[in-house]
Amino acid sequence: MICFMFPGQPLTFETTVPDDPDFRQATALTLDRTGLDLADSALLGEGLTEHVRLQVYGVAMSLYRCRRLRREGTVPAIIAEHSMGIYPAMAACGALDDGDALELTCRIGACIAAMGTRRSYALGCVTGLTAAPLMAVAENNGVFLANYNTSRHFLLSGERRNVEDAVAEALNNGAFTARSFPCDAPLHSPLMEEVAGELREVIGDYRFREPVLPLMSHIDQDYLSAADLPEFLVRELSLPVYWERTFQALSDAGVSRFVEVGVGDSLKKYNRWIASEGGR
């Protein structure tokens, strides 16, 4: 069984772009629905941050690569998503059109980014510590565990100074690596509830179809229905991403081939780590 995995926001834009009819179609659709030109990563319009640009870019490239894979004969039986990967995942399983997925990504990103005009936020990437000691570090510094990617790979989320302090403490406590990077909002933390009402207003403009392929939630590993999706899009920003559990649930469901559909190979790396520990 093949699973298409859709990763979250990339950290950077790729230095080269494809040159084929599918990419040109994706470029035209993205430009029309969001203002982002995939050919040069230039965003037309005002008020959208670098992080929103990366979010839209990541979704657009996932949609493009999904189309290419299917054209080449690689067909998924199940869909998985990590963080912002939910937007192309919804398109891949038929719950939204590609254009709506792009537009919704852009609008959600702009709503989230408004938080960054009021406070400074950051994410912290920590490897080497297990969850329990890192949770203690997070609590000591008033931040949150945002991503449980593997047994020893996590993201922290919160106000920037607090995240920086937590990263320093994690290193002092034996983390292999730990670094922070600024972001627009404290993603996957309870602090996101500040904009929940605005998010619901944006999401209310869209209609979701029943997925034609199983779409697994990264929160509780249940399968999402059309009725679930509007509230899931709000809740998932306030709750952690549990990728290790998701990979294990997919394996238990019979997935034998995982295909990462997007920019980079972070999910493949997480999967190898998890599989090496669990013997899968």
What does this structure look like?
- The protein has 280 residues and is α/β, with parallel strands linked by helices.
- The chain has 2 domains: 2-115 and 190-278, Malonyl-Coenzyme A Acyl Carrier Protein, domain 2 (3-Layer(aba) Sandwich); 119-183, 2-Layer Sandwich (Alpha-Beta Plaits), CATH 3.30.70.250.
- 43% of the residues lie in helices and 18% in strands.
- The chain contains 10 helices and 11 strands.
- The chain has helices spanning 21-34, 50-71, 86-92, 98-113, 131-141, 160-172, 196-203, 229-235, 243-252, 266-278, and strands spanning 2-6, 36-37, 42-43, 78-81, 121-127, 144-150, 153-159, 177-183, 215-216, 241-242, 257-260.
- Strands 8-5-7-6-10 form a 5-stranded mixed sheet.
- The model has no long low-confidence stretch (mean pLDDT 96).
